[in-house]
Fold this protein.
Amino acid sequence: MNFRYIPVASKLHDKRSLSTLLAGHEKALAGIGGTRLDGAVADRAGVAFYFVQTGGVENDVVRRSRSRAQQGKAGPLLLIAHPAHNSLPAALEILAQARQEGGTGRIYLLKGIEDASTLAAIAQTATCLEANGKLGEDRLGMIGPSSDWLVASSQRPDVVFNRFGIRTIPLEIDELRRLAARDPAPDAGPDFEAWERAASREGATRAAFARAVGVYRALKELVRIHRLSAVTVRCFDLVAHDGTTGCFALSRLADEGIAAGCEGDVPSVVMLRWLRQLTDRQGWMANPTDVDVRTGMLRLAHCTVPLGLVRKHGLTTHFESGIGIGIDGSFSPGPATVLRLGGANLERWWGAEGTLVADRHEPQACRTQVELRIPPAAAAELLEAPLGNHLVLVSGHVKGLFREAFELVAATR
C-alpha cells in the first residue's frame, strides 16, 4: 500500500521550527507508505491527502480541491492535522467549506509517531483508495447471460462500469464450448493433482474429472484471449447441454487470482474481485441454506470452492444434477466475514462478521457446506431486507475495511 500526501503550510510560520516539530509525523507517514509531494504536482492523479501543517492555508486547499473537481478528479477531501500551529482549526474550516459545496471528506488528527490508531486509519483509507482505483483496470468476462433465476443479480454492464469502473466483456457460452471441444477430456497434466489429492471421490469418475479439466483449460484460454481478471459463467448450460460442470474450472481460476463466479451472478463476482483488491485474499461465493435469527446461525453451501481456501477436499458429483464434478471442501474454523452487494445500481450492501464453526455434510444441499455464527441482528436483516441469493465469505474480520471502501467509491464516482 502506497499513498501520496501534500504538505501545506503558511509562509508566516518558521519553516525550520515547523520541520523539526513535524519530523516525527512525516517519518510515521513514510512508515505506512506515504510519499511527500510538493505543491507543484498537487493536481496530479492519485493525490488524496493534504497534511495541514499550519493555519492560514484554508483558501489554498479549497482552491486546489475545486481545481481537481474541475479536472474530473473529484473525491473526498482527506486532511491530516496535528495539535499545534492552528492545524486542526484550519482542517475544520476546510472540511466545513467542502461540505457546504456538496463534497465529502474526513480529518485524521495525528498526534505523533506513536499515534498508532490514527496511522492505522490513514493506512486503511489509503488501502481502500488503492483497491478502488485498481477496479478501474479490471475486465469482467460475462460468459453467457445471468441464470434465469437470478432476477436481482443481473445488473447491466453500464451499471457496473458507472459504479466501479469495471469493464464487462460479454461473451457467448458457445465460445467456451468451441475452445473446450479442441481437447474435451485431457488425460494428463498438473491439473490432475486435485484428483490425486482428493480425500474422497464419492460418485466422481476420472472420466468426469477429465471433462471438468477440459472446461477449465478452455475457460483459462478465454481469460487469456480477452485479458480478463474476473469471470462469471452461466454454468448450468454446461450441465444441461454438455453433461459436465464448471465447478472445478472456477475453483482453479480462483486459486490463480482470477475472481470466478457461478451462474452469471454480477454482484457476487464484483464482490469477489473487490475483496481480492482490498485484502489480497480470495473469497467463496455460496448459497445461504439456513439461518436462525435467534442464535445467529448461518449455513452456506455451494458445489465449488477454491482449493486454496480449504484444508482438504473431496470430489463428488454436482448436487442438483448428480453429474460431472462437484467439490466437497472442508474449511478450518476461525474468524470470517460474509458480504453481499445489491440494489439496482449496486448502491447497497450487507455484511456481518462472525466465526466459522463447523463443516457440514447434509445430503440435501450443495457439496461444500459450512456453518457460521454471526450477530442475530445481522441474521434477521438478511431475511428482512435481502439483496439477493449468493453471499461471499472471506477469512478474517474485514467489514469495517469494506464499509470504508464502499463509502469512498460513492464519494469518487
Notes: The chain has a mean pLDDT of 93. The longest strand covers residues 348-360. The chain has two domains: 3-135, 139-412.
